[in-house]
Design brief:
This protein has about 450 residues and is mainly alpha-helical. The protein has 17 helices and no strands.
Amino acid sequence: MNIGLKKAYISKSIILIVFVVVIINIFQLEINKNGIDILVLLTFILICIISIYNIFKDKTPYSLNKAFWYYNLIFNFVAPLIQYLTDYHEWGYRLNNNDYLNTNMLIIFSLIVYVFFYRRANKERIEKQEELHFEISKFIKVFLIILSIMCLVIAIRNVGFSNLFSRSENNYSISEDGMFNTIFTHIIKCIPVYAFILIYLNNKKLNIINILLILIIIVLNFPTSTTRFWMGAIYIGIFLLIFNKNIKNNRRFDLLIIFAFTIVFSIMYSFKFHNIDYFIKNGIEVKDLTESYNSVDYDAYSIIARGLKYVENNDYVYGKQIIGTIFFMIPRSIWNSKPNPTGELIASAQGQDYTNISCPYIIEGYINFGMLGVIIFQIVLAMIFRRLDKEYWNNSKCNKYIKIIYPFLMGFVFYLQRGALHPVVIYLFCFCIPLIVMYFIDKLKKINNDRPIEKRD
């Protein structure tokens, strides 16, 4: 091992140790010391070490793999550790030390499977990304702009302008079929996104047209009117699309992301309960930081534990939930026994009144097929992520459709990991519909261009 490699491993080890110590010491609010088990703490620390090590091991500026590890660091270490230390239990469902230990062991096992198969999926070296450029005619530009404005007009006529900023009212009910309404709503929201992508990649400038499209995107996907994970996918994708060449391949961006997710986001959550005058007068206290983590917004870890309990009391579902997800397009009016999202299944079985909750990807696999399901699910995820990461960052000719959608998949990784899988598949399908249309249009053009010209006599 050369000196440079030794220094790299030493620096990573120091960062890991410092991060664990800082997290444990920053969030020392009313710690329930009597109920803490040292083995539970050690497994939490192991999840942290595995996550940060793999973030720093990834040599790309950003990737689906890194998004996977960012999620695990926040939702499977920081949030549940704080909840454990402060004896907080989401939805009133209490977890004991044995529940925490079993959950951590399942998470660690799933991470090991993911690491093994992500590395085996493709051993070719990931190289520097080539910039993507689209050639589109003025007619197509005008058409995309008009189509985006039409989407905004349809939304305003359907729910009213003020209701575009309210999540409870921002649903374009044009049919009695709830699934159709959901698909239509999200297609309207993402068409301007694709218009922006194509026009921006044509000129690479934030001109008046692109700024107009961004404003339309913001109005149709306003933070208070849509799910945070859909919003995150849209905004993260646009950010990476515009600033990707400024994100350098170093650890500063990783540290910035970790700091943003662990500290900045928790401070922003505090503004939900206090205004800026409050913080100017009182400052930001440890209590303000922990309030965000001690909330149902970070219930994903607890649902893994509750999923283990569900199987213990009710047995596996043997693929029933997966079938419901695969055939999500079939309306419930036709398929009366169509399975509900897995989070709803767990909540209902355990007597919880509010059932629209998350269900992490890990427990989706476990509830369907046990440990074999966890292995299969993680293998599929590792293979897909590695393939897309390699395709996006490699200098070889990359599929332009992957180039288009890849930055937006970064946000969907968080949504997929938190679940439930059923709504994630629906929203991802909605986002991909315009891309699928573009693909078939290109295919038709190619077929038409390749068709031999008939000679006239």
